[in-house]
Amino acid sequence: MSRKPLIAGNWKMNNTKTETIKFLDSFLPKAKGLSVDIVICPPFTNLFAAAEKLEGTDVKLGAQNMHWEDKGAFTGEVSPVMLKEIPCDYVIIGHSERRQYFAETDETVNKKIKSALQHDLLPIVCVGESLDQREEGITMSWIMSQVENALKDIPSQELEKIVFAYEPIWAIGTGKTASASDAQEVISAIRKKIAELYCSDTAEKVRILYGGSVKPENIKELMQEADIDGALVGGASLKPDSFYALCTFNL
Ligand code: 13P
Q: 68: which residues sit within 8 A by CB, 6+ positions away?
């Protein structure tokens, strides 16, 4: 079964509205007719301006986070209804920076995934281990429990809409990429876990990305692995030239 590659740029807290427009003015004319799915995830404040620029193009828009409730007294939060109206297509859920600095848990991640699906937003669900966990040898059990908890009570017909991103925390923004074979090992284990929780047909359809210091120089090697379906990119997604180079890894 062939899964279409997906390259997603997670801009984190980078690029103002003016910089976002400038990025898209440079990137979009080049990004026509590519054979990969492309998503950019700018900060909330730039989503509307980005959506206007992306209208009529194949590049999709994603948010970096959301609350699971539709509305209410949650100062500082943004709801799925608001994202859908922009319109956003994707939403990143459970990024390790959200888990680490903003106290997100497997339970809130699961609530957010369910809410995103209910609102027809495609979740990009992040999992990953810390350096300590890798050195302790508990990477696999940790990731498998993150996956299982994320998917709690989610029916199989929804699975195809979910994208997973395996992002080892020690590889994020450090310049240290997991080797392609280490990334493949964890990602194929995630796919096996999904097959065990649902069935192998479903597992074969789910796209699983790698994230952590992905650059134009190392994306080809990662993408040669059987189970790696794309990349969730931070630093190298911020400039149109390097993001374009990532989106054309297969040309
Ligand atoms: P870097 O590509 O900057 O390492 O960030 C990865 C990441 O966290 C994407 O979500």
A: 80, 108, 111, 112, 114, 115
Radius of gyration of the chain (CA): 17
User: What pLDDT, on the 0 to 100 scale, is given for residue 1?
Assistant: 59
Q: Which amino acid is at 231?
A: A
State the closest ligand 1 atom to the C-alpha of 12, by its place in the atom list counted from 1. 10
Look at residues 227, 128, 245 and name the one whose alpha carbon lies nearest to residue 181: 227
Q: Report d(CA 247, CA 242) in Å as an integer.
A: 9
| DSSP 8-state code for residue 138 | -
To the query of whether residue 95 is one of the catalytic residues in this protein, the response is yes
Could you tell me how far CA 77 lies from the centroid of its own chain?
20
| pLDDT per residue as tens digits for the range 5-27 | 999 999 999 999 999 999 999 99
**How much distance in Å is there from the Cα of 6 to the middle of ligand 1?**
15
The reply to whether 119 belongs to the active site is no
CA-CA-CA-CA torsion for 246, 134, 190, 149, nearest 10 degrees? -120
pLDDT(177) > 90: no
